[in-house]
Amino acid sequence: MQQITILNAEQEPINEAFMPPAGFRPDDELEEKIAAITGNCWRLWDEGWHFLIAASMGKDSSVMTSIVLNAAVEYQAQGLVLPYLVVCSGNTLLENPVIDAYARAELAKVEVFIHKHNLPARVEIAEPGTSNNYLLNLIGGRTIATLPDNDDAKCSNMMKVEPITRQKKRIFKELGIDKTCTLVGTRFDESAARGDAMEQRSDSPIEPVNSKAGKTDKKGRPLKPEYVLSPIAHLSLDDIYYYIAMVRNDWVKAYSGFNELVEVYKEGEGGECMVNAYANGKAKSTGCGARFGCHICLRVQDDKSMNNMLTHEDTREKNAYMQPLANFRTALKAWHYDPARRNWLARTLNSDGSVNIKPNAYSPEFCEQLMMWALSIDADEYMATNGSPRFTLLRLVDVLAIDVLWNRYGYQQGLHACYLWLKVNRDGERWYPPEEPDVFPSRPFPPEVSVPYADREFDGIFSGFRDLSMMAAGYDEMPYQSSKGDSFMACNTGDEFSIDERAAEEFFGFEVEWAVERFHDFCINPTSAYRYLMRLGVVQIKKGDHAEQERMLRMANQIWRSGLRDCLNNPHEIVRRLGMNGDAVGFQGEMFAA
User: What is the number of structural domains in the chain?
Assistant: First the structure.
């Protein structure tokens, strides 16, 4: 095959005539489609559009990124001023380690390409903050796993949508919202559902489409525009494979040789070439059989890509280090519906001082179990790689964040997460998820009931968000005053709940053993450790969230005063310890012994 030349120096940079009218028809040759995409990019750049290129580094987005970057090089080579480009990718912090390493390596190649050609561009990776760290929030007792029967896409919103939305807002503010469009690698023929959705949105490979047109916020105000372009919308799956083949044969220059792209799909297909998988009918309905996502994902029945990587004879030895991650997922899925692994005490006080008994997040014991597994898996991986782990489940900031959540919910003694971290990393103890756990099927939970909860100390000054240590020592705590005149403990505030990374490193380097001895081994109640971390300046809460912190601390302190900490997973025992008879309040549940 002859080398394809998309644009050469002899061609006039008259962009109005550059895009062939037939260039976006599905039946056109790939060369014509590439020329059309390139010409359209040139026209939009002439109009001053900045591009935000959404690059997951899968096959479709890789091809789109290559075509657009090549177009940018040739545009700039004509002496034209190229608007700014941002290549954006997302990392959930729970990606399949093989895919995570691959994506990072490919994005590094994009950066090299950008610098080599002196393009006005950069690469950004959006990651969830502490508030949206999915595994942290599972272990911290803040949420439960997303399964098909509770499919509210919560995990996707936390790990992908919200971080990327925040990233976009920042970039739009920097470059101008009216002249920045997001490029996505969606194609009409990827699937019938995808094609229908694209048509309903009026997705276009030619003109940026305002995806927020006609939409309003909760107050009925029009949303700010957000322009989206689908450059490869009319490329077929054959076109995608053909382009990848051209790059691999050096017929078309690209930021990458795409060899690693083909290999990761091959591993995900169980050792079968991505093109062969398509030819054999595995991928005709969805575009490609291999689907990569979070190693903890429970929204799908089985993680086929991970299973292929762990079982195929050509890859299982190389990828054996991921088996503990698969075991973690299996155990979490098997025990998700176990009623004894749920916390049955609601987190909101009713107006009459009662509380509802109903299942919500995972129980303190199960959260502790998840924590011990994660810490042990991390420690083994760190040792096996001599300090260069291929994945990390929990960072130091995550351990401290879990302690904050556990203390805020009254789940554990003060700094219990730090205590477990020491047991694993200092004392060498290990705990692992079972490879074949007993499976608890889904079944209806008993209806919720309300029982008296708040005692006379519930609203007292020592139960809320105030600095008790400073007050007891006779110092002026300099409390924060809300707009309503309420007083709360002074602490760091910001856009969201977070842990200072440097402060966390210093804490684990110099303070952790002393702090655990003081706030865990001699724990009066967990909220004292919570206030200690606030006072230390390690924790930042969301601005204006003081009242919510106070509400949760009052609930947590009541748990300890009522002696409920060790029975939050047993609704009958909760009711009994609160001085009520289960039958009297209408609570009957066959899954528990009264």
Answer: 2
